[in-house]
Amino acid sequence: MKTNAIRIHQPGGPEVMVWEEVDLAAPGAGQVLLRHTAVGLNYIDVYHRTGLYPAPLPFTPGLEGAGIVEAVGDGVTELKAGDRVAYANPPLGAYSVSRLMPADRLVKLPDHIHDRTAAAMMLQGMTAQYLLRRTYRVQPGDTILIHAAAGGVGLLVCQWAKHLGATVIGTVGSEEKAALAKAHGCDHTILYKSEDFVARVKEITKGEGVPVVYDSVGKDTFLNSLDCLRPLGMMVLFGQSSGKVEPFDTGLLGAKGSLFLTRPSLMAYTAKRSDMVASASELFEVVGKGVVKVEINQTYSLKDAAQAHRDLEARKTTGSTLLLP
């Protein structure tokens, strides 16, 4: 059968994404044919497009989507045609009207989770889940620092951490983003362009520092983030929207208080199906209870994915963004 998808034939700017007709085979053993109802936009898609995270060319980008199972291949027993499902993991290929997916990388959607909500929250929501519940297990009374607090992961972390009893400090790029973060549970916002965030964190914590920093910005914030940590604190570098962190002397971690540094990824935390299902289930639970609200603040036609990438890289987006087939 034929379908349409965004294809990338060479790494580069948003203009390298082209809308093309592609051939789609019948589902093989262990696969399902999935028709997307919504596709999630994530910063990792930019990394794939530019070649920072290389993918075999040509390819269709995208790691997150929701949709309807249209057919199943041999050996697939947990899913059937008509099931509503979602995912946030490889293989790449979410920027498509229809695609093949390994059945064991899909989770069924409960009735109370809308397709669009799922496509907007699976990658960012399961990221928030592992950050707060596994990488550093946030406890009541903790004060945490989250960079890019008004972004997709940031807004989810603010709400979820607040629910867990934490005090949340968030860095943001504008007054508008500060208001958005505060509306989602962020106790203290820091305008990083005009304020010294290390000094503000020390002021808020009365000189003590925080037990954990969640940093998806990378190069621009990394070294200063280490100075926000209290002794034995954990630096969680889970992205690099401003660029890669330069190599540094690990003795710095010792000099600044025997700090821990980790560079986690959702793919590693959900590599086992049991972990993926548990993560998604906890996410569905907090969203279902209204503890965490998913903000879909931008939608684009899937064929206009290049414009969505331009806006994402220009910091014009907040919350979650969807591409609609």
UniProtKB/TrEMBL annotation:
One of its GO terms (molecular function) is mRNA 3'-UTR AU-rich region binding. Residues 12-323 form the Enoyl reductase (ER) domain. Keywords: NADP, Oxidoreductase. Pfam families: ADH_N, ADH_zinc_N. InterPro entries: ADH-like_C, ADH-like_N, ER, GroES-like_sf, NAD(P)-bd_dom_sf, QOR-like, Quin_OxRdtase/zeta-crystal_CS. SMART domains: PKS_ER. The keyword Secreted does not apply. SUPFAM superfamilies: GroES-like (SSF50129), NAD(P)-binding Rossmann-fold domains (SSF51735). The keyword Acyltransferase does not apply. One of its GO terms (cellular component) is cytosol. It comes from the Bacteria. NCBIfam families: PRK10754.1 (NF008024). This is Quinone oxidoreductase.
